[in-house]
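Weekly puzzle thread! Below is a chain. First person to post its structure in token form gets bragging rights.
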Amino acid sequence: MRFASQEATRTLCGLQAEPLKALIERHRTNSSNVPIYKNTQSDPVLYLDRLASIFRNLTPVVTPGALHPCQEVATDLWPIISAACDTFAREERIMERCCRTLRFTVR
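Winning reply:
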């Protein structure tokens, strides 16, 4: 994917981050009553995989001496990814996807 702009990346990531944020909040408030059905919209893996894919396929134009174009977007996503790690710490499958998302975001 050719890097269009920081705002386009922010919008694209926001489409995945907002549902993920809602799932985390719902799970935190009703942890015993919120089932996670694999491969459905109630599965955080769906949104984490999409975020990882976005960052894996970005090829930003980096100007020497300037701030990396993805840095602000990654900084904005960090609290959500961190909350997912905290909330789903006992779910191995979800934690693996959190780590993958972080790996591609940092790259």
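Puzzle host: Confirmed. Bonus trivia for everyone else. The radius of gyration is 14 Å.
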